[in-house]
Design goal:
It is built from five helices and six strands, in the order αββββαβααβα. It is α+β, with helices and mostly antiparallel strands. Helix 1 packs across helix 3 and helix 3 crosses helix 4.
Length: 126
């Protein structure tokens, strides 16, 4: 089975990673500083971008909200993946695919920032 090619200009992994596995181990996600919670709904949480008048609010479901709550700017994506897999009873492959897809979507919407992990975080990775 052939995988669907990515659109031009969209990297498959972060610049500091040569594979999805390495991306998980060497990257930290953190909430964008301009994002704030507006209200809670029965389906999750509604976020807005501060300093962007007229920008659409973004609704995140409860599963996405649980991921966002873990973005402390210190945990590597691999640590987040392990926690996500345990919480939702997913295999490593399923959790990797779901988490990376969700985080890339949040990054594209400018809700999070993906940054290289400092060396101190890498030595503490599980």
């Amino acid at each position: 089975m052939r995988s669907k090619p990515r659109p031009k200009g969209e990297p498959q992994t972060l610049p500091n990673a040569s594979s999805p596995r390495q991306e998980l181990e060497t990257t930290i996600a953190r909430k964008h500083p301009d994002i704030r919670e507006v209200r809670r709904t029965s389906r999750g949480v509604v976020l807005e971008r501060a300093h962007r008048p007229g920008a659409r609010d973004i609704e995140i479901d409860t599963m996405g909200e649980s991921v966002l709550a873990r973005l402390d700017g210190r945990k590597t994506l691999e640590t987040l993946r392990i926690e996500f897999a345990a919480e939702h009873c997913l295999s490593p492959l399923e959790s990797r695919a779901l988490l990376l897809s969700f985080l890339r979507d949040l990054k594209q919407r400018e809700l999070i920032q993906l940054v290289p992990a400092p060396p101190s975080s890498l030595s503490n990775a599980p």
